[in-house]
Fold these 2 entries.
Entry 1:
Amino acid sequence: MTTHTIFLPVAFILITALASFMLIGGLTVRAKNKRTVLKTGLAILSTWLLVTGVLAWNGFYLNTEARPPRFMFTIAPMLLMILWLVTGKRQAISLAIPLRTLMLIHIIRIPVEFVLLQLYHEGKIPLLMTFEGRNFDILSGITAPIIYWLAVNQKKVNKKLLVAWNIAALLLLLNIVINAALSVPTPFQQFAFDQPDVAVLMFPYVWLPSVVVPIVLYAHVVSLMKLIKAPAPAKTLIAGRAINKNELLHAE
């Protein structure tokens, strides 16, 4: 095994860990019951990382002949978790995450893109999944801190700029997710038959669709909820705090 091959999975594990800790930190920073939220968040995320990691290590997802496609089980549970977190009483927990955290989470999209580029050179994903192909997601990572700096200050938040950026970055995310999903060797494959997307079926890259992408998606969803649905004094959006039911019903 070459040096770069050893470095790559380690780098991706660290990226996943960083994204996970940023999410858990954001959930707990303004929670009234910090310890409970921290323990629950760590328990759920650690369990999911362990389950998907062990399954990928043992080649569970590499059985592309299984019906339904096992790749679906890397995505569906976290999408349901996101839906659960942004509805009902849990919505207040999501809205309490500081906008600062929600924006800075997207910086992880930069190192992810360089991992994807190396995976292409190793023959594990198609060119279309890199920024040399159809993947422009790196722009979201580069512009996230810039847009945050331009749009936020202690007196006023440029909600229109933040909403526009989140929508544009969300579309970039959906673009690569759709292209990547249609490049995985399943009955639904439409692209990259000569070099399909097999990396996401393997450890540790299975955490890209099962953990990293859902965290980025969740950050977009919550940001848009905070900016559009909830009242947005600058200190509330930047620092984050629990938002009560009355505020949600009477948003600006």
Entry 2:
Amino acid sequence: MARPEDRRDVTDVRRLAALAHPLRTALLSHLMAFGPRTASECAAAVDASPSNCSWHLRQLEKHGFVERAGEAADGRERPWRAAATGFRIGPLDDTPAVRSALQILASVQLDEELRLARTYLRHEDELDEPWRHSAEFNAYGLLLTAEEVHDLAERLDALIRPYLAPTRDDVPDGARPVHLMLAAYLRPDAP
């Protein structure tokens, strides 16, 4: 059953720092895509041990990113789920500590994006033809103002939100978890 949309703002640099860890980012991404999972189920997906996942899930729980998702069916390991259907960064003070935490988090998130894309490419031949041909790897060179970048991101977000796994209630047969990454930033080689 779909959950109502619940996007939460991350406005504390300590919460940013808690999320800026490769395994925590991978765990949160996995839970947001697949819904409630045990630490053992997460471990298989993120290539870590169940005990390590359990420890990092508890750290994410301390900072409000994940929560327990009811009782375990077998009475042993309880599942975890994302505490919200999305997280927004900000508003935050423009301080060196905040800028550093944001840069570290963005770097960790980019590493996770590359890990997922490379894993997909390694296993692409194992997929059915429609899924192999549905993948998109595009890049665009745009000329925008800073305000236009923000506006474009807002408009794209509005187009994407109806398809979010935790909130989608009109899931067609054959739908599977798909990862979408969009990034927009001033090219580092721009004059």
